[in-house]
Amino acid sequence: MGHPGTLPVINKEAVKLVLKTGLALGGEVAHYSRFDRKNYFYPDLPKGYQISQYQHPLVKGGELALPSSGKKIHLERIHLEEDTGRLVHDSAGSGSLVDFNRAGVPLMELVTKPDISSSEEASEFGEEFRRLLRYLGVSDADMEKGEMRLEANISLSADSSLGTKVEVKNINSFNVLRRAIEYEIKRQEKLLAGSKSVVQETRGWDEGKQKTFSQRKKEESHDYRYFPEPDLPPLEVYEDPELNPEMLRRKLPELPWEKRKRFQDEYGMDAKASAMLIEDERLSRFFEEATSELLEWGDKTKKTELVRLAFNYLTSDLQGLVKEKGILWQELLVTPENFAELIKMLSQSEVSSRVTKDVLRTMVEEGGDPSDIVRDQGLGLMNKEGELEKIAKKIINASPKAVSDYKAGKETTLQFLVGQVMRETKGSANPEVVKKILLKLL
Question: Contact at 8 Å (CB) between 113 and 71?
């Protein structure tokens, strides 16, 4: 905030995180980097300037491929600057307040080249970049908390040259990003169709009116009167062992697009399934650890079935319970090993699908080994034909209409009878054995 007697200090960890991001995106790390003062007047900037980078950013170049098409979006630069204050506007329009809590916090800014050609591509780029930030541990990038913000520069032109640029600032969701870009395209199209010129300016998004609105005229770079920040020393990045790019590169984790491809190759998954798993690094790690256990137990010929079962119960049932209970993955009482054991029991017809769901809920709520839960609660699958035949006869006698419908050729009625037996046995009967017995009796 520029209080008298205070001086800025470079946050070394922030510099390291910017370099990691740049290396993951194939950018070129600068040997020499420095900070500059970007001068402009706005209420969220109490010093009258922002510490940023202009001529010598930490990273230049790089690219990010869109998952759906493989189209490469090339990057201009990634630099580090200080965040500003935050304007809070009174809903009645009577005034604005400035929240300085985030002023001076390290802010990484990534600038793309003008390769994005639609709101869908812009949103997809942002989502893939957010995945990368999370995989690298650079940021949680929670947009609701303001940990990631988007700024779209939109320009229209009748030919290959770039048109006049309009920037829509501080967009806080991918949904808003798409709507703001689409609105701005239509607004500029209308101006150009009426032989009017587009003004270079900064605009905001009005959620209530679903439209952009003018905030201030947009400056050219020379208007900011950049000059080297006198209170911060230049950086010789390669001279610091902790910032050495080769060392940082070797420590990079598996990146989202690498994991997406490996899941497709290794587990035979389609693009949609692998995309669902890699969305959350903790979810994909849980899946891999559980699947590793399953494939050690299972017959290799059943690999596809085991992977499918693990994926289905993880992404629907277990993930659903995690959301329902409001549990963090790191607090989950279910271990990948116990989850794999439950899936194994299901695949070997030791428990039914219904029982699997019930046991999983118990594991989430109380923890425990699935085989112990099944034994203690008497939930094991009934396979004894003698016992099941008695129950099947009881159901047949109690369902004369269903029996006559089946004999009249309505074969779907058989599933109803199977369901009645399953209900009678509280889901503990083996449905395949039940079906076989019913067919014999009918």
Answer: no
